[in-house]
Amino acid sequence: MTIRVLLVDDQALIRDGLAIILNAQSDIRVVGQAADGREAIELAERLRPDVILMDIKMPRLDGIQATRQIKEHLAETPIIILTTYAEDELVFEGIRAGASGYLLKDITREALAEAVRGAVRGEAQIDPTVAAQVLEEFQRMANTLRRPPVPAAEVDLWSIKALTPREETILQLLTEGLTNAGIASRLNLSEGTVKNHVSEILSKLQANDRTHAVVLAIKRGLLDL
User: Is the residue at 149 inside a domain?
Assistant: First the structure.
């Protein structure tokens, strides 16, 4: 299988360099290049790439907004933010927008190629430099939202029994940023089965989306971070 990649960066020199690196891999081919977020949206819908590498700061439409809009129509297409910026807020905005990875441009060519392959497998791609920030944010959310212990008689039984063991496992994997395809591969299930489980999780937790489901699960003490 050849992995089809869309490159999005406002600097032609960066795009050309990335294309040379990725096209040198026998299993990866760059099928398109976009110079801004709006062009990225158009090419993503037309080319349907397997992976998108997305810069953040670009003219007309930035990478965060472009990621959010692309994910509305191509929910299962992994988007990796590839940028020079490691600021906390940009990292969290990118992940909240639906990016399945956040890498810095000082990454080696070997690591970049492996990140593209990992994204296709449904794995989250987080640069070690910002990984600690992401973990700290989840821990902060857990400390802020988790309820204090209550007597057994007062425990909300719905929050404990709402999810099946399989759904709890899938919910835990959602915290790793895995797509439905990634979860299916990890659990040896069909992608359709995982999609049904995720829909059931959202329904039971009354969540608007996957991120909201994780937040609610942390609040109810259903996840260990």
Answer: no
**What letter does residue 9 receive in the DSSP assignment?**
-
Residue ending a domain, choose from 67, 102, 128: 128
User: pLDDT tens digits, residue range 132-166?
Assistant: 666 666 666 555 545 454 444 443 434 434 688 88
pTM: 0.66
User: Does residue 137 form part of some domain?
Assistant: no
- The span from the CA of 193 to the CA of 27, in Å, is 28
How far apart are alpha carbons 223 and 168 in whole angstroms? Answer: 8
CATH classification of the domain holding 181: 1.10.10.10
Looking at the domain assignment, is residue 138 inside a domain?
Answer: no
Of 21, 20, 2, 209, residue with least CA distance to 117: 2
Q: Tell me the per-residue pLDDT of 28-45, one tens digit each, with 9 for 90 and over.
A: 999 999 999 999 999 999
81 closest CA partner among 61, 69, 67: 67
Whether residues 14 and 113 share a domain: the answer is yes
**C-beta pairs of 135-144 under 8 Å, 24+ apart in sequence:** 137/88, 137/92, 138/175, 138/218, 138/225, 139/225, 141/215, 141/218, 142/218, 142/223, 142/225
